[in-house]
Amino acid sequence: MSLGDADRFGAVREGLRELGLALTTPAEPGAPPLAGARKAWVRYSPYVVVLAFVAALLPVTATVLTQDYAINGATAGALATAQTAPLLFALTRPLPAWWVIFTADVAGGFALYDAPGLAHRSWPWTPMMVVGYLLLMVLLGLRESRRTLIAVWLATGAAGLLFEVLSQDRSDGIHLLLFVLCGITLVVTYALRARSDAQRRLVVQETISEAERAQRTLLEERARIARELHDVVAHHMSVITVQADSAPYRIQDLPPAAQEEFAAIAGSARESLAEMRRLLAVLRSEDTQGERAPQPGLDKLQQLVEATVRAGVPAELSLAAELGDISPAVDLSAYRIVQEALSNVVRHAPGAPTRVSVSADGTDLTVLVVNGPAAEPVAPLEHSGTGHGLVGMRERVRLTGGSLDAGPLPDGGFRVAARLPLRTSDVSDVPKGTS
């Protein structure tokens, strides 16, 4: 044997081995088609269809084999049962069912070879066998791998070719018809299954992307809040540094030990301030410019509301005359919550009357922004938001240890209510989750 012949023989042997593996390696048993449907009648419809086919094909096959082909009744009954009954478990195990039906079909072809009533009738496959076999191809195409489907199709063609070689004068070409119909059925069902799988993967990917987008939004909001609070904390650190440096000059007869202590405090404050600047550099994105203007607070609310009125939103402000001693972080958070709430009104409910209320009860600061439905319907500037608004509000109240209640009103408006402690230092344990 030459080297080329050996290579060809090895390729053929490898192909036959792959064919055998494909025919003997079924897919994992699983749910039948339409098992994930919400309605019960849809889930049970595959069982009803297959049961109807079996109930119709089994007696018809037995009757035709007995009366038309003149086959012994016991043989006809056994062939009819083996060719149709396995369709019932083909819903969950199509490849084992194919082995039973395919073997029964081939045995039926041999049994009909010398049948007395074979003249002018289909051979080796009967019409009933073709119908049941095509239904089996549908169930195979919906479950098995492409390699297995190709192997089944080739095995069907090989069986038909075998009978064609055995007796060309008896065959009426039905084996060729079955071979073509099997190929079309397998291609169509496999394509439908691949399309369904692609859509399902797309839904899963969209769900994952949405979760990642929400997480990214949360992280961006946290970084933005951290950048804003940097100025607040840096101011306190600078005050500590100045006080510690000036203490020996402001306090007369300060002992040397106390002077060294104040110097150490000033040095630690400078180091902390430098570390904060490095931290801010990490939090700031490449395209983010440093904010040089002072961070706003509740003293800027009147200007904010006036700007909202100029944007076409009839807004009014109710600000308590005495709010108490408010920490800078709470002051900034309250302003940003009102700013984001008014921005949402401008984007999503232009023209809606809005009321802003800020009050304090000695321990907590209450921020309330309520907008009702617009007197005349106006097309919103945006129909869907990025989700930054409420995420940022929740992060701010979480940071200060407060609570947030935001949601639509029965009349079609929207309400944002935030409760923040006046002094964040009073919060012993900031909650880890969002409010």
Give descriptors for this structure.
nucleotide-binding, five-stranded mixed β-sheet, kinase, membrane, transmembrane helix, alpha+beta, 11 helices, Sensor_HK_TwoCompSys, about 425 residues
Task: Please describe what this structure looks like.
α5 (127-141) packs parallel to α7 (174-250). The radius of gyration is 40 Å and the shape is elongated. The chain has helices spanning 3-24, 40-67, 73-84, 94-111, 127-141, 146-166, 174-250, 256-283, 301-310, 328-348, 388-400, and strands spanning 315-319, 354-360, 364-371, 403-408, 414-421. It has a 5-stranded mixed beta sheet with strand order 1-2-3-5-4, with helices on one face. It folds into 3 domains: 3-172, no CATH class; 220-283; 298-426, Histidine kinase-like ATPase, C-terminal domain (Heat Shock Protein 90). By secondary structure, it is an alpha+beta fold.
Major β-sheet, in short? Answer: 5 strands, mixed
Quantity of strands, as a count: 5
What global shape is seen? Answer: elongated
Helix fraction, binned, reads 55-70%
How many separate domains?
3
Instruction: Determine the mean pLDDT.
Output: 81
Low-confidence regions: 426-435
What is the H/E string?
HHHHHHHHHEHEEHEE
User: Measured on Cα atoms, how large is the radius of gyration?
Assistant: 40 Å
Q: Span from first to last CA?
A: 81 Å
Strand order of the largest sheet: 1-2-3-5-4
Transmembrane segments: 47-65, 71-90, 97-113, 125-142, 149-167, 173-192
GO molecular function: kinase activity
Protein name: histidine kinase
Domain Signal transduction histidine kinase subgroup 3 dimerisation and phosphoacceptor: 221-286
